[in-house]
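Minimal example, chain plus 3-acetylpyridine adenine dinucleotide.
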Amino acid sequence: MSDSALRDGYGIPVIKRKLTIVGAGAVGTSALHWAMQKAVAEEIVLIDVVKGLSEGKALDAVQSSSLCRFSGQITGTTDYEATKGSHCVIITAGLARRPGMSRDDLLDKNIKIVSSVTENIIRYSPETVLIVVTNPIDAMVYTAFKVSGLPKSRVIGMAGALDSARYRCLIARELGVSPEDVSALVMGIHGDNMLPLTRLASVGGVPVEAIIPRERLEEIVKKTQHGGAEIVGLLKTQSAFTTPGLCAVEMAEAVLRDKRRVLPCAAYLEGEFGVNGLFLGAPVVIGGAGIERIIEFPLTDEEKDALKLSVEAVERQVEAVNRLLM
Ligand code: A3D
């Protein structure tokens, strides 16, 4: 995948990093914006099934490149050939929630969309790292894994990074401090049964359980669990996109720059945390080849019970995926 035509100041060949974003809707456009802002790749392809949509959005983005100092190439297309040789692909294609809908309501339609997108991507980038954003995420990332035939390390779901960002933000607001100084982890399903761990949340190294009253922490946990629905309720015709786009790009950046970031992501678990054969949110190390390792640690009995609710819900979704993929 290296491009020998591109050389640095010493004439040494430079790897030209290529990122594809599938879906030029709200999240895909946000991801394009953040990818340019952070200059995570020298080439970015935006692809959508709707003719003109990604072309128009790419053109609009190109016009901002002098202002955001992005000097790479941006292509908008409906043709998968343009995605050839992508090091990393963010999949946002699919339907999004409307008020009153659960993420599960999207299941059947999005399985078909994610399957066809994955087949097309793998045809041109058989060694890529896939970052799946389409909901219901824990089932869609499983779909991409099954359809792509990629090793489990190369298929990752974006959800924990977003849920943890929301959780950190709420803790920071409660304490009146910068969200930057809050460290917190959300595990499990991306849904009502997600598991924001209060035991591990800290601010500047101080455990939040020592400084936030229990009832307030419980409210913060509930608000985190319903953070997505709160935004859908306000926007009415779409779901959150600014932070989801940024979270997907943070993960892509970890791949494209081999950063070895520790991020909560939906990873394929094979025994870790007592879970087998499912994608579920857990802390992982992300580098150039995708997930380098899952960071496993002992859960309390209460946390194990809470994680079981996630497992049961994702198992039901995965049964539906397996039925539809047969
Ligand atoms: P939206 O703005 O509707 O964009 C979706 C885009 O996908 C549209 O432009 C469609 O044309 C395109 N599309 C549909 N089918 C195909 C196809 N076969 N090939 C290529 N493109 C296609 O939605 P959005 O951007 O707001 O959300 C996208 C997805 O991300 C939805 O499923 C959301 O539920 C999900 N989402 C997940 C999170 C997580 O944290 C996991 C957060 C926010 C959104």
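DSSP finds ten helices and 14 strands in the chain. Residues 20 and 89 are 5 Å apart (CA to CA).
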